[in-house]
Amino acid sequence: MIQSALTPDYEDYKTRTTTKLKENIILHDFLVDRLIHADVARIQNDDTFFVFEDTVRNMILFWLRDEWIGRNIPKTDDIDEVDGTDSVSHMAEFKKKVVQKSNEKSEWTMESQIQPPNGLLPFRGLSIYAMPVCYLHAGLDGAYMMFRELYVRYFHPLHTLSPHHPSLLTLSTLFESLFKQTNSKLYLHLFHTISSPPHNTAFGWIMFGFIGYLDIEQTLLLWDRIIGFEGGLELVAVLAVGVFLFYEERLVGARTEKEAQYILSDLSELKVVPLIQYVLFVVNNE
């Protein structure tokens, strides 16, 4: 169990938290809820996760209304989410001003609060982060409580542009430098010869932590190691390099960008652990 809040009765805490969020869904219908419904609807075409469509939808609706999210994600001034929202620190500062203004008028209404309550706006692909959690919990409440912990610790940095590590920017930089170091010839072939920059493909892998790209068993194995290393998001960049090295022979033979993209389009047969070990312990020791 991944748990930030210290409480003598976790089950009671979980029930109270999710009950409040369920009531909020019933009472308040946000315009951005439509974006969530549209994003989750894409799961219908996924053979692995389509059975969890309702669970994922409710988890993201919970996420949107959960003020705990905004209070617990990193408060870095220069964070800029890929979805285009302001940093949470700026949102918090703005909310203080709103509260102060409303107190002066001796009133506090729904309209004067920050919306959505978590301080973040949903973006295309957000529901992807919630999908693997459905394999770990049978019930919605338990699944959401784990999801919000994972989001704050791991998923949020994956879609955040910031010079502070870890973030999408620093992980992409790590991927590129590690790729050049391990196989500069392949990198140059892709980047210069056929004009297919590796980071164009790897960007999606890194941003979503390979969720939706790998077989579900391999996805869970990857995240088991990321969590086990306490913030080991670097493994996402390492695995991205490993994928290119695995397909090296075929990629060297590619003559166009489309050929390279086709070779890298299906990762369902890959084995995560051997690839990570190969990059970390074999290539870097040669």
UniProtKB/TrEMBL annotation:
PROSITE patterns attached to this UniProt entry: TBC_RABGAP
Domain of life of the native organism: Eukaryota
Matching InterPro entries: Rab-GAP-TBC_dom, Rab-GAP_TBC_sf, TBC1D19
Residues annotated as domain Rab-GAP TBC: 1-230
Xref: PANTHER family: TBC1 DOMAIN FAMILY MEMBER 19
Protein name: Rab-GAP TBC domain-containing protein
